[in-house]
Specification:
3-stranded antiparallel beta sheet; 3 strands
């Protein structure tokens, strides 16, 4: 069975819904930084997450350090990248809701399904 049919059958039976078109899902998941955003939103208490907090958490994951270990430069670079590139894509495709004026990010109905899909793919493709 090919991966697409396998994932389609698993999602239909067991996984939360993803209210996005397939091409939107592929676009959203194509960048590691966007995948981190979705996982972080799924793991946090529901509500709005400030961009500064999200940037810190993404930078921490990317560097593999604890919360205090990500450098200020790394956090700032992540902030700019999220603001200029990744959040507009996530918002445009309906994966998150981004209040650009307040710099607050809120999960959409699809975050849980997307995060589950990311974890499933990670679990099935790890070569540790």
């Amino acid at each position: 069975m090919d991966l697409r049919r396998y994932l389609s059958s698993r999602i239909a039976r067991e996984q939360p819904a993803i209210d996005l078109a397939p091409d939107d899902v592929y676009t959203v998941l194509s960048a590691e930084r966007r995948r981190y955003v979705l996982l972080i939103l799924d793991e946090n208490v529901p509500g709005k997450l400030p961009l500064s907090d999200l940037s810190r958490q993404v930078a921490t994951r990317e560097t593999g350090t604890d919360r205090s270990g990500a450098s200020t430069d790394s956090i700032q670079s992540t902030y700019v990248s999220l603001y200029q590139s990744h959040l507009p894509v996530l918002d445009r495709h309906g994966a998150v809701e981004w209040d650009q004026e307040m710099n607050l990010i809120c999960e959409s109905n699809s975050v849980s399904g997307l995060a589950t899909l990311i974890r499933e793919i990670d679990d099935r493709t790890r070569s540790d």
